[in-house]
Structures
1.
Amino acid sequence: MSEEAPQRRPRNRKQLIVAAAARQFEQGGFHDVAVADIAAEVGITASALYRHFRGKSGLLAAAVEQEIELLEQAYGGAADLPALLDAAATLLLRPNRPGSVWQRGQVFLEPGCAAELEVRYLAALEPLRRAVVAAAPDSIGHADAEARTWAVHSVLTTGRAFERARVDRDRTRRLLVEAATAVAAVGELLPGRAVVPRAVVGQRGRLRPVSRREAVLSAAVRLFAERGFRAVGMDDIGAAAGISGPTLYHHFPRKSALLAHVITRCLDAMQFELAGVLSSTDDAAEALEQALASLVRINVAQGDALAALFTEVVHVPEDERAPIRRMQQDYVDEWAVLLVACRPELTRPDAQALVRSTQTVVNTMRLRLPLDEAGQRAALQRIGRAVLGTRSAEPGQ
């Protein structure tokens, strides 16, 4: 009986480790992923992994660096905006591409490392910014160029929505380029006179709810947005709400139940408003415009709570997460029917993907628009129309 040949260590083991870490951080979040899980995916032991990285923070930093390197490739080629968008979409949609971990993971990095990686991330977007400015029909200011660049970038990074809807890659590339081109061409997003200091963007009033239960929910939403779900304890929430531990657990038996309630309440509010929209008109274009306005209004007013649907829902237990996902899909489907009625050339999966892309981009851009609430709503609706491809519904166009 012949002996099995010894397995050779792959030369790219470090890259395989980083790719596995990025996938797991993207899917499960930083705190819920163990080093042993990442090692198992690569087929090595945790001790072997530690020969390359000292811990999870180092893995996260390497995953972000991998994401930045992909963006440098995506945006560092053609200077012409159409060619750049096409090349970028092709790269950002390739199979086994690095996961997008910067947005969710930056709060878990050491401050110095996070600052350094942010500089690199912004530098990777600079060629895109120059192309966006060069393609603008009129001269645009620095702040407007920055916001428009982030909006285009946000569109191009929503490829997962199209994969979920099972849209083929070539069709996805065309739809993403079309949406990104429309976003780059939107009218003025940041009128100079309306810009407010970034430090006050997203700030809310200081009145505290009288209801203890509502005070808990309000505190939880704020803390989850600031630190991430896993970094916040029930004691932190109770202290922020001015409520003792036993009283807090009387309302919510565990932190995941609190998170599930926050997300479900957002979806209920969105569905409630959408039902009112559908019963108020027979015109699909008008209904879609009102649905977008409703989403934007909720996002500007309660964006931190809505963000949990996109970034923290993975922390809800599966048996509670499934109904949330069904509610979200029902909401998307209502939009998709309206969008197909407005754009008959789209298939239902096309429309579902574009709706998810729009909702993600609106949520992402909320804190990148240094405007008062009215200005934010107007800018987000313009961006939303551009992604959906319904810009003809915009007043004055």
Note: Residues 1-7, 392-397 have pLDDT under 50 and may be disordered.
2.
Amino acid sequence: MQLTLEFGGGLELLCNSVKVHNVDVDLEDVGEEKVSMKHLLSWVQTNLIKERPEMFMKGDSVRPGVLVLVNDCDWELSGQLDTTLNEKDVVVFISTLHGG
């Protein structure tokens, strides 16, 4: 499944300073017929986060202060971890907690 993942608000620093990732998540990697946000977060932690994963994840979800948008819609409106992703979806992660 092809997805576009975008990282902002400093989270891109955890992914070698790359903001946009066009990825192909293999359904065999997640062991399911469909990819949920819970599966995607695990995949991101394993495949994209290069340093300080604790700045992105807490348990099996994102840390408090990380805004998650799926196709420009807050994931809290679509089921958070249970949100089912579709081919060509765009998922954006933005840290709202950054220094100033």
Note: The longest strand covers residues 2-8.
